[in-house]
């Protein structure tokens, strides 16, 4: 009996923690971000509703035919459309992103969103996508997606996408936060500011000084 009560309390506590992991519910019809306000709150201060206009709820050309520049080391380019650049999203708990991938292996490298689930739709091309779940099993879920296919990366999981095609690829992601945040694993671990000590990384990755030094050198 006592154990059932404890189990019940634990489940309730976990449910509450989960609820707090998502963006708060709106308290009004809309709260268009006043991104110039000096007031610091959770999100952005609302612009005076009397001055809100249709353009505040509009973001032009996200999926236009203009390719974003993927001429970088990983071969991808993320155009994030969160509340900071699309003020109408403030307090609404959603955002989106366009992702362009270079041909022959353009990669959106392993990363996670600390505040969002992501659902990705392939607009053009062929993508290898996957995510890795929690310890201890660290199960890996993966799929090859074609144009029109959809895949979901659950809240907080480490995930990636790679272009398997000979032509550029484009995807559209929807995220369950107005400000999902991104932590790119390699950049965070080997390129933090200031650096994590080599002793920590050597032991964590079970490698020697030179391997850690080489990895760190990739992130200026
Ligand atoms: C992404 O593409 C835009 C537009 O082509 C470009 O201005 C920007 O520098 C690119 N970002 C990266 C990281 O390559």
Summarize the structure.
Residues 60-213 form the Cupin type-1 domain. Helices cover 19% and strands 26% of the residues.
Structure characterization notes:
The protein is an alpha+beta fold. It folds into two domains: 49-181, Jelly Rolls (Sandwich), CATH 2.60.120; 182-220, no CATH class. The protein has helices spanning 2-20, 185-190, 198-205, 209-217; strands at residues 76-81, 95-101, 107-112, 118-124, 127-132, 140-145, 150-153, 158-163, 169-175, 183-184. It has a five-stranded antiparallel sheet with strand order 1-2-9-4-7, with no helix packed on it. It has a five-stranded antiparallel sheet with strand order 6-5-8-3-10. A hairpin with a 7-residue loop joins strand 5 and strand 6 (140-145). The protein is globular, with a radius of gyration of 20 Å. The N and C termini lie far apart (57 Å). The relative contact order is 0.15. Bound molecules: 2-acetamido-2-deoxy-beta-D-glucopyranose. The site of 2-acetamido-2-deoxy-beta-D-glucopyranose (NAG) has 4 residues, from loops. It is found in: Secreted, Extracellular space, Apoplast. InterPro entries: Cupin_1 (IPR006045), Germin (IPR001929), Germin_Mn-BS (IPR019780), RmlC-like_jellyroll (IPR014710), RmlC_Cupin_sf (IPR011051). Residues 1-21 form the signal peptide. Disulfide bonds join 31-46.
Strand and helix map with partners:
Layout: H1 2-20, E1 76-81, E2 95-101, E3 107-112, E4 118-124, E5 127-132, E6 140-145, E7 150-153, E8 158-163, E9 169-175, E10 183-184, H2 185-190, H3 198-205, H4 209-217
Antiparallel strand pairs: 1-2, 2-9, 3-8, 3-10, 4-7, 4-9, 5-6, 5-8
Helix pairs in contact: 3-4
The chain binds 2-acetamido-2-deoxy-beta-D-glucopyranose (NAG).
2-acetamido-2-deoxy-beta-D-glucopyranose binds at residues 68-69, 72, 77.
């Amino acid at each position: 009996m006592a154990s059932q009560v404890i189990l019940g309390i634990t489940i309730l506590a976990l449910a509450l923690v989960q609820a707090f992991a998502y963006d708060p519910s709106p308290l009004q019809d809309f709260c268009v971000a006043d991104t110039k306000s000096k007031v610091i709150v959770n999100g952005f201060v609302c612009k005076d509703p009397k001055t809100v206009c249709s353009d505040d709820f509009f973001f032009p050309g996200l999926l236009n035919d203009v390719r974003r520049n993927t001429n970088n080391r990983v071969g991808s380019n993320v155009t994030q459309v969160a509340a900071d650049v699309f003020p109408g999203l403030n307090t609404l708990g959603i955002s989106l992103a366009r992702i362009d991938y270079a041909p022959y292996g353009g990669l959106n490298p392993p990363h996670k969103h600390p505040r969002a689930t992501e659902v990705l739709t392939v607009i053009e091309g062929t993508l290898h996508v996957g995510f890795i779940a929690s310890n201890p099993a660290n199960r890996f879920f993966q799929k090859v997606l074609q144009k029109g296919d959809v895949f979901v990366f659950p809240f907080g999981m480490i995930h990636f996408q790679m272009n398997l095609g000979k032509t550029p690829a484009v995807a559209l992601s929807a995220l369950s936060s107005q400000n999902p945040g991104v932590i790119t694993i390699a950049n965070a671990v080997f390129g933090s500011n200031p650096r994590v000590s080599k002793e920590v990384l050597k032991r964590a990755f079970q490698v020697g000084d030179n391997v850690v030094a080489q990895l760190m050198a990739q992130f200026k």
